Amino acid sequence: MSIKHSLLALLQGGPMYGAQLRQEFEQRTGGTWPLNVGQVYTTLGRLERDGLVESAGAADEEGRIAYRLTDAGRSEVQQWWTVPVAREQTPRNELAIKLALAVTLPGVDVQRIVQTQRTATMTHLRDLTRLKRGADGDDLAWELVLESLIFADEAEVRWLDHVEARIARVTPTRAKASRTARVATPGNAGPREEVSR
Question: Is DNA repair given among the entry's keywords (predicted)?
Answer without folding.
Answer: no
